[in-house]
Design goal:
75 residues; mainly alpha; 0% strand
Length: 75
């Protein structure tokens, strides 16, 4: 991990694109704190995975593409 001090409380202005993104995540039923934590954890997971696979060097942000699986249909 970096030697940068991680704040105990994170304060971010939610305007424009960030406000729109938060609205989307809030549609899941999470509250603002849970939504922010979930989004940050998901972003960190994606970065760690890309770095572990060697897609880009550690510390760089890769171009990403999402794939979705449809739930299996039961007949």
């Amino acid at each position: 991990m970096s030697e940068a001090k991680i704040p105990q409380v994170l304060s971010v202005r939610t305007k424009g694109e960030l406000a729109e993104a938060l609205e989307v995540v809030l549609m899941t039923g999470l509250d603002k704190t849970e939504a922010t934590k979930w989004a940050m954890q998901w972003a960190a997971h994606c970065l760690r995975h890309a770095w572990a696979l060697g897609v880009v060097p550690e510390g760089k942000i890769p171009d990403m593409k999402a794939q979705y699986r449809r739930p299996e249909r039961r007949v």
